[in-house]
């Protein structure tokens, strides 16, 4: 009897994974490109001071050299399609880094110049009776917080209810008219909002008046269209199936909006509100016209002028007094404080959105 023996199976490499560069290869090629570029510029700058070394040129040439090398090697080892993909990836990553450069430069400049005055006195005292050194921004911090909070309390309900009307109820000419005016308000210069509020109060009370509440109204005019636009887009992407399921259970429309639509989009709405706050918290021109400026503490938004952080930074830079270095240092420190406040508010918004977002059942 003849015994049949199975032929040995020769392992084959999968087609989709054959001819691939190792994961470390692109990083090694990138590092090698920078080394070659640095060597070229180092030879060109030989005999000169270290400060004459062209760092920007080294980076640019290194990136261009990397794109050429990775494209050529990938086309040889892998395929032409993969080489094009790696080239496009390098181009997109380079464009992203170029877009980040102004932001990184701005943050570095503000931190480097503003950290000098980050001390207990700066956050404990106002500028009352301060001419040269010393002083602080406690009055400006209180003014910024109170005015921005008041503007948020005014604009968020109006903006949110407007977006609910446009998405859930609005039809016909009225909805189109509201949408048109919201688009117009989105593009108005901030100084126009300040002039509008100042003109209204000048007619009602009298010219020359300034108070924190006027500044809050000016900021609310700028915040409202941003809240409307952001909330409207987020309410539109809520699936209609959720609304229909609620209606099928006999839930009225207003309760469906309150219990289903808004909780579903609360995370995005919170983000849009924070974008609106970030849009107005650094405004200077409308607050100069409406809230004015003062060197003393004032926590009553309905009585007297109030100082805010952007106006404080502007005032310190434009009116440097007897000690220009101290005034400029205070201006940079105020700018850094404003950036930190915006960052804290964004973190709080993320936390609130995470806490109140609808909980999904685990799989």
UniProtKB/TrEMBL annotation:
Give the record's membrane topology.
Multi-pass membrane protein
InterPro entries linked to this entry = MetI-like, MetI-like_sf, Phosphate_PstA, Phosphate_transprt_permease
Q: Which SUPFAM superfamilies match?
A: MetI-like (SSF161098)
- Keyword Transport assigned to the entry: answer is yes
Q: Where in the cell is it found?
A: Cell membrane
Q: Which UniProt keywords apply?
A: Cell membrane, Membrane, Phosphate transport, Transmembrane, Transmembrane helix, Transport
Q: Where is the ABC transmembrane type-1 domain?
A: 141-349
Per the record, the domain of life is Bacteria
Give the residue spans that cross the bilayer: 27-47, 53-77, 89-111, 140-166, 178-205, 211-228, 260-281, 331-353
Classify the main location: membrane
List the PROSITE patterns hit by this protein, alphabetically: ABC_TM1
Q: What CDD domains does the entry give?
A: TM_PBP2
Do you know which NCBIfam families this protein is assigned to? 3a0107s02c
Family membership, please give it. Belongs to the binding-protein-dependent transport system permease family. CysTW subfamily.
Q: What does this protein do?
A: Part of the binding-protein-dependent transport system for phosphate; probably responsible for the translocation of the substrate across the membrane.
Protein name per UniProt: Phosphate transport system permease protein PstA
């Amino acid at each position: 009897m003849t015994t049949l023996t199975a032929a040995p199976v020769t392992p084959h490499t999968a087609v989709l994974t054959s001819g691939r560069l190792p994961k470390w290869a692109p990083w090694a090629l990138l590092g090698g490109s920078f080394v070659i570029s640095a060597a070229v510029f180092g030879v060109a700058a030989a005999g000169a001071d270290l400060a004459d070394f062209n760092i920007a040129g080294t980076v640019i040439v290194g990136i261009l050299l990397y794109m050429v090398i990775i494209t050529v090697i990938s086309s040889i080892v892998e395929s032409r399609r993969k080489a094009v993909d790696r080239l496009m990836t390098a181009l997109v990553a380079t464009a992203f880094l170029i877009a980040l450069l102004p932001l990184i430069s701005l943050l570095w400049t503000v931190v480097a110049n503003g950290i000098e005055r980050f001390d207990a006195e700066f956050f404990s005292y106002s500028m009352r009776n301060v001419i040269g050194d010393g002083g602080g921004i406690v009055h400006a911090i209180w003014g910024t917080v109170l005015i921005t909070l008041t503007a948020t309390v005014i604009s968020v309900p109006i903006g949110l209810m407007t977006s609910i009307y446009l998405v859930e109820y609005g039809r016909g000419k009225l909805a189109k008219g509201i949408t048109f005016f919201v688009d117009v308000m989105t593009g108005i210069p901030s100084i126009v909002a300040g002039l509008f509020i100042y003109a209204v109060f000048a007619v009602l009370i009298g010219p020359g008046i300034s108070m924190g509440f006027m500044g809050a109204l000016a900021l609310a005019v700028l915040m409202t269209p941003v809240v409307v636009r952001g909330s409207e887009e987020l309410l539109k992407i809520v699936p209609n199936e959720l609304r229909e399921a609620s209606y099928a259970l006999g839930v009225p429309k207003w309760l469906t909006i309150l219990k289903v639509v808004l909780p579903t989009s609360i995370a995005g709405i919170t983000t849009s509100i924070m974008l609106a706050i970030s849009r107005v918290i650094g405004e200077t021109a409308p607050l100069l016209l409406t809230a004015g400026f003062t060197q003393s503490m004032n926590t009553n938004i309905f009585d007297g002028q109030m100082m805010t952080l952007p106006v404080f930074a502007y005032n310190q830079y434009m009116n440097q007094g007897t000690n220009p270095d101290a005034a400029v240092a205070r201006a940079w420190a105020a700018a850094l404080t404003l950036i930190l406040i915006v960052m804290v508010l964004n973190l709080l918004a993320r936390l609130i959105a995470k806490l109140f977002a609808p909980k999904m059942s685990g799989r």
